[in-house]
Amino acid sequence: MAGTLDPQRLHQHRLAVAEAMGATFEPFGLPRAAGRILGWLTVCDPAEQSAADIGGALHLAPSTVSTMARTLLQAGFIERVPMPGDRKRFLRARPHGWLEAMYAEADAWRRLETPVGVLRDYLADHPGIARERLDEFHDFIGFFDREIPALIDRFLAERRSKNNEES
Fold first, then answer.
1. 81 with 90: CB under 8 angstroms?
2. Which of 35, 63, 79, 155 lies at a CB distance of 3.0 to 4.6 Å from 25, suitable for a disulfide?
């Protein structure tokens, strides 16, 4: 038998996810506040939140919410959504935003393959530490280029299978 959700505890758990996401993405160059907003939009209910809703939940200034939302919009993690009868702007986590971010990451690494390959070819007769680093980096790019799409495909297949089992 399912228990009753305590709204205060649920809110605290949601805040914990938002805080953890902020801390997790910070080392990758995303400001902590942006990670917190992304975390909040991942777990909040309703999914659509105004800037005031987000700022109130996370104790962020309106200017911070606006700036960080712009960063997340540009990265493709969140989207603006209209709400019938309401003039405020609402935001929500983008469906499949995580997957699209991974594809974009793979594309970014792939753009390095050609210039790294050209330099490797140029240094073919000049072994040394620079060439060793280039070889390792080139191999990494190739591995990433092969494995990320395959990893995403496996994830999607697993999700489809799981959703079919639950239906």
1. yes
2. 35
Q: Are strands 86-93 and 78-83 parallel, antiparallel or unpaired?
A: antiparallel
Q: What is the DSSP string of 86-130?
A: EEEEEEEEPTTHHHHHHHHHHHHHHTTHHHHHHHHHHTTT--SHH
**Peptide bond before 149: cis, by omega within 30 degrees of 0?**
no
- Helix 62-75 and helix 51-58, axial crossing angle in degrees, nearest 10: 110
User: How confident is the model over 16-55, as pLDDT tens digits?
Assistant: 999 999 999 999 889 999 999 999 999 999 999 999 999 9
The CA distance from 134 to 129, in Å, is 9
pLDDT bucket at 88, cuts 50 / 70 / 90:
confident
Residue 11 confidence (pLDDT) above 70: yes
Q: What is the pLDDT of residue 145?
A: 85
